[in-house]
Specification:
With 323 residues, the chain is mainly α. The chain has helices at residues 2-12, 18-24, 30-33, 62-69, 94-133, 145-167, 179-201, 207-214, 228-245, 248-254, 259-276, 284-308.
Length: 323
């Protein structure tokens, strides 16, 4: 019984709540604020405002409740973030996004079209040079090799002008983005330059020398340059030109020049040895290199035929003949 009295006494002396303190100070009780005695204009400045658990005052609009609490006004519709997939104010619509993308695609297509026009002119010049050099395979072509090489070098002056024009058709830092447009014609020009140098000196032209003939750079850091794979592809085309396609080795035998096939054989074997030093992946260049094996086999057959007929003895000493 004494414990129960102590508990009751402890509860009686509990400090008053906030609402009770307001009532004790002589203000209108909270219950009256929500009852029938409330004024039409709401509670006065000194009256207590009851708030529900959700944070809004009972019987008072939300904006006025926030004003009484001292909080900021509710955000406007433009300040509300994107909810449920609705567009945030001030952002680009889907239609505007695709219109901008179409502008980028159109600009890219214009650049590619300008590149194609220059490449077509380069291809025409390359065909003219090739037609000129094909004359060495004719009956009296071997005697006209110096003149034909000189005319071919004059055509390479036109190639320089066309390549200078090509450099201005695309941004300098996007070489490999548009490289596919001029890759094949550039490989053809490398072959033609290597063919001219071989006819003049019977040596392999260097990559730097080809770049100088074409009027471009050998170093990729300096802008429009001659890619290494393009150079190697042109050299492989040269090997095929000497042996299989136009059969320079066979035609030289027909013209009575028995020493030339022996020199071509030495040159092709040196090329094959050089390419064996490269670690080529399984790509187009590797497939082109596989064709060099047939070139080696073909020139060996020509040299063998000369040997069994004793025609290689008529070759000049030091010509590199094989028995």
């Amino acid at each position: 019984m004494s414990c129960l009295l102590a508990t009751v006494r402890g509860a009686a002396v509990r400090p008053p709540t906030a609402r009770l303190r307001v009532a004790i100070r002589g203000r209108r009780p909270v219950e009256a604020a929500s009852g029938s005695g409330a004024s039409k204009h709401g509670p006065g400045p000194d009256s207590a405002v009851p708030f529900s658990r959700s944070g809004t005052a009972q019987g008072i609009p939300a904006r006025r409740c926030q004003a009484l609490r001292g909080t900021a006004a509710a955000p406007t519709a433009q300040q509300v973030p994107c909810v449920g997939g609705r567009r945030r104010a001030g952002t680009m619509s889907v239609s505007d996004m695709f219109i901008a993308l179409q502008g980028v695609l159109t600009a890219d297509q214009d650049i590619r079209e300008e590149i194609r026009k220059v490449v077509q002119a380069l291809e025409q010049t390359a065909r003219e040079i090739l037609t000129l050099l094909q004359g060495v395979h004719q009956g009296t072509g071997f005697q006209d090799i110096p003149k034909k090489c000189q005319k071919a070098r004059e055509h390479f002056g036109t190639v320089k002008v066309q390549l200078d024009s090509l450099k201005t058709k695309f941004p300098a830092d996007q070489y490999y983005r548009f490289h596919e447009h001029w890759r094949f014609v550039l490989q053809r020009l490398v072959f033609l330059a290597a063919f001219v140098v071989y006819l003049e000196s019977e040596t392999l032209v260097t990559r730097e020398a080809v770049a100088e003939i074409l009027g471009i750079e050998a170093d990729r850091e300096r802008g429009f340059h001659l890619d290494i794979e393009d150079y190697l592809s042109g050299v492989l085309t040269l090997a095929s030109e000497l042996v299989r396609k136009s059969r320079l080795a066979v035609n030289s035998v027909t013209a009575g020049d028995y020493s030339r096939p022996l020199r071509i054989s030495t040159f092709i074997n040196e090329l094959d040895s050089g390419f064996r030093l490269l670690n080529l992946k399984n790509d187009s260049l590797r497939k082109r290199y596989d064709g060099l094996k047939y070139d080696v086999k073909k020139i060996e057959e020509v040299v063998y035929d000369l040997s069994i007929r004793g025609l290689n003895k008529e070759a000049t000493p030091g010509a590199g003949g094989e028995k």
